[in-house]
Design a protein that fits this description.
Largest sheet: 5 strands, parallel
Structural class: alpha/beta
CATH superfamily: Response regulator
Strand order of the largest sheet: 2-1-3-4-5
Order of helices and strands: EHEHEHEHEH
Number of helices: 5
CATH class: Alpha Beta
Strand content: 15-25%
CATH architecture: 3-Layer(aba) Sandwich
Distance between the termini: 9 Å
Length: 121
């Protein structure tokens, strides 16, 4: 299975720190800073896993997750919502959109790596 991971977040420091950590662990890390750019990248070069922020410009994470899940060629990509929105209604929106897991910011780097290994092996 591919070790390619896409980090989608409009906060530069989040994408930079996650990408650095993932590359250090041997994963290929790519970034996108808004939902539309993420969809274009996923369609062009599908990753094995996506860390997806909920609130982003152009298209939000819930919309991105729904579009990925509706595409038969992309629907099996693992999506982990990584967001500061922690209310139950937000989690339900993410789950209904088809995300595989939901992690709150600020996140624990060791916890992120455990999730990656859980889903990608």
């Amino acid at each position: 299975m591919s070790k390619k991971i896409l980090v989608v977040d409009d906060e530069f420091y989040i994408t930079r720190s996650l990408s650095f950590m993932l590359k250090k662990e041997g994963y290929e890390s790519q970034v996108a800073y808004d939902g539309q750019a993420a969809l274009e990248q996923v369609r062009r070069d599908p990753p094995a896993l996506i860390f997806l922020d909920m609130d982003m410009p152009v298209k939000d994470g819930v919309t991105v997750a729904r579009e990925i899940r509706s595409d038969p060629g992309l629907k099996d990509i693992t999506i982990i919502m990584l967001t500061a929105k922690g209310q139950e209604v937000d989690k339900e929106r993410g789950i209904k959109a088809g995300v595989n897991d939901y992690i709150m910011k600020p996140f624990d780097p060791a916890g992120i790596l455990r999730k990656v290994k859980e889903f990608l092996g």
